[in-house]
Amino acid sequence: MNMNSNTTTSQRARAKSAISRLFPPILFLAASLLSLAPMARAAGVTLTISGNIGKFTNQPARNYVFSEAEFNALPMREISTATDWTPKGTFRGPLVRELLAKVGAQGRQIKFYGEDNYNVTIPASDFSKYDVILARTWNNKPLQLNDFGPFWVMYPIQDMSTSETSGIFIAKLAWQVTRIEVK
Ligand SMILES: Nc1nc2c(c(=O)[nH]1)N[C@H]1C(S)=C(S)[C@@H](COP(=O)(O)O)O[C@H]1N2
Ligand SMILES: [Mo]
Predict the structure, then answer these.
(1) pLDDT tens digit string along 99-135?
(2) What percent of the chain has pLDDT over 90?
(3) DSSP per position, the chain
(4) Nearest CA to ligand 1 atom 23
(5) CB distance 174 to ligand 1 below 6 Å
């Protein structure tokens, strides 16, 4: 064994131990970033309103995108009711008429799009007649995409008569909403 190969071996050993010292922190960092990813997505929930509106967050695209923070800063209302899909519980969200006012909505028909490609068009008059909210939470927990979220059109069912909540009414309770078009 000559001096040269000895040096090379110890250099390799030092390099190797440097990697093994660095590796756990790198793994830890990677794991932390991965576990943060779903939170980052949840924090990134947005609501896009487009169509016949007068206020925009993106002028060229002519739409208004509510960030989660801006949405959560809106005045909130609660509706405590059971639905066909949920036991009695409390939904919380802003009034749809206030959301529409915020974006300067002018249309008579409001189309709600679900992430599952469902859509329903509701006359704007419903939102002056009833205190309809765009629910973001149920029993204080944010609605998840796989559980009717992020936004669910909710009427004050408990205050409405059976004739008002019969027939096609139930089709207005669009869940998994992320986009609204004012027509
Ligand atoms: N996002 C979304 N919301 C929705 C639906 C849907 O398929 N997707 N169905 C609507 C219709 S047509 C009705 S009658 C009710 C009940 O749907 P269900 O019969 O599938 O439970 O939810 C309404 N909200
Ligand atoms: Mo339906």
Answers:
(1) 999 999 999 999 999 999 999 999 999 999 999 999 9
(2) 76
(3) --HHHHHHHHHHHHHHHHHHHHHHHHHHHHHHHHHHHHHHHHHT--EEEEES-S--SBTTTTEEEE-HHHHHTS--EEEEE--SSS-SEEEEE-BHHHHHHHTT---SEEEEEETTS-EEEEETHHHHHS--EEE-EETTEEPPGGGT-SBEEE--GGGS-TTTTSGGGGGG---SEEEEEE-
(4) 171
(5) yes
Beta carbon of 66 within 6 Å of any ligand 1 atom: no
Q: Is 116 in the pocket of ligand 1 (CB under 6 A)?
A: yes
Rg (CA), the chain: 25
In the chain, where the domains are located = 1-42, 44-182
Assessment of whether the complete model's pTM goes beyond 0.90: no
Please tell me the number of the ligand nearest to residue 116's CA.
1
Report which ligand 1 atom has the smallest distance to the Cα of 115: 1
Q: Tens digits of per-residue pLDDT, 172-183?
A: 999 999 999 999
Residue 168 alpha carbon to ligand 2 centre in Å: 7
Fold for the domain defined by 44-182? Sulfite Oxidase; Chain A, domain 2 (3.90.420)
Strand partners of residue 114 = 177
